[in-house]
């Protein structure tokens, strides 16, 4: 009778060693590229990091906005116009009409701050946004 290790095929051990060798070879190639072309290697590394960051960020946003709980949420003072536009599926023109402004502010003002700047209450601004959204949706039918 053989030992338990006799039952494990040889290629299994070789596969693990092969994977470790590939990683080491990749690191050696990266170090060699770094020595020969430090600027290009740095630029490539930064590009990879940015790609990973924005891919992760896109996935997070996709998952967040795919959740039906985030659609047509009750408008509150802490929200920004952009958040309401995403939640209610509105375009810029509809929000401009509701805010009675021809551009969205440069910095991210909340709806409460916008209402205070315009000298109206938050329920009045909320009513204007809902009216503009209703008009927009009726025109889309």
Q: How does this structure look, described?
A:
- With 141 residues, the protein is mostly helical.
- The chain has 2 domains: 10-66, no CATH class; 70-140.
- The protein is built from 6 helices and no strands.
Structure in a nutshell:
This protein has 141 residues and is mostly helical.
What order do the SSEs take from the amino end to the carboxyl end, as H and E? HHHHHH
Helix content: over 70%
What is the overall silhouette? elongated
Q: Provide the β-strand percentage band.
A: under 5%
Largest sheet: none
Helical run tally = 6
Distance between the termini: 78 Å
Going by helix content, strand content and strand pairing, the class is: mainly alpha
In oligomeric terms, what are we looking at?
single chain
Number of domains: 2
The overall strand count is: 0
Arithmetic mean pLDDT: 82
Cα gyration radius (Å): 28 Å
Give the low-pLDDT segments: none
Question: What key attributes describe this structure?
Answer:
single chain, 141 residues, mainly alpha, 2 domains, 6 helices, 70% helix, 0% strand
